[in-house]
């Protein structure tokens, strides 16, 4: 029996619906296994801009720092799209990642047997896919200076900078090797070393770190090729480690191997202090507030929290199994439903997963109702 404080930052759009689903699931886990979860809510993103004039208020950061882990929904929406850089919802997300030193973003991509039909790719291509994208999260193109717009000699310009310090690359590549050691022992380091200087340094460092992990195989892959290989033969990958923006792009692409962006959880870890868990999807303003969003990515993010921050692997397994059960039983939110198939609401999906967690018999009930 443990007692944990979780900071919850729902954010904007479907962020609210999916985090409230994940909180429900955590409560169910608390009931079933006798843990105490205390939830403290904070503002981030567009809502924080509206209420506090900044996308990451100090109170929010304070709540996160004094908690054991952070659960985040999503930020952003058309309402704030024309705001200047410092008043954009996304800025709040980047700031919290930086402030809490969450440099290692883990994005697991797992094939679900029952979702074969939901992926646009052929079954033989996605069968058995089990890969982990380790995205560097606090450096690279997202944070390099200079960044901004200017007018020089009457000409309008914009600049972003891809900058990495050696230590930043070392720690993320090392994390990837350590994770690979517990998996299939293969690291694919993705870069653009044929063009970018930062990538050439990345490659050198990866080679250096590899010396300390003789049991793990290292391969290098150019990012354009990696984008293609992820669709051509995703089974070849185990751990992919890469620069912030490459990781952002490749993880959205990789989500389609599972059938939907709505399925992918993530964990953002630091070497000290609480970690943050969030679905990789955005705030989906087009379906926000309609009880349609797929809560599974947020729920699986909560499972990652239990496993990685609290060491509760049995509890994490229980959530993952419950998700597999409802999927196997045929439950589908709109994003993963087939043509003509009834899509369930966010609440229905959450309730059935909860039922599966609380009561093993519920699973067989779900099986008969949705078969
Ligand atoms: C993600 C998102 C964010 C990112 C956005 C919302 C800033 O796309 O977590 O992948 O680019 O990192
Ligand atoms: Mg993204």
Automatic annotation (TrEMBL):
Listed binding positions for substrate are 97, 107, 135, 224
Cofactor note from UniProt? Binds 1 Mg(2+) or Mn(2+) ion per subunit.
The entry marks the following residues as binding Mg(2+), namely 224, 248, 252
Q: Where does this one sit in the cell? A: Cytoplasm
The GO annotation for biological process reads:
L-leucine biosynthetic process
* Gene3D superfamilies reported for this sequence: Isopropylmalate Dehydrogenase
Q: Which GO terms describe its cellular component?
A: cytosol
Q: How does it assemble?
A: Homodimer.
Q: What does this protein do?
A: Catalyzes the oxidation of 3-carboxy-2-hydroxy-4-methylpentanoate (3-isopropylmalate) to 3-carboxy-4-methyl-2-oxopentanoate. The product decarboxylates to 4-methyl-2 oxopentanoate.
What is the name attached to this protein's record? 3-isopropylmalate dehydrogenase
Question: What gene name does this entry carry?
Answer: leuB
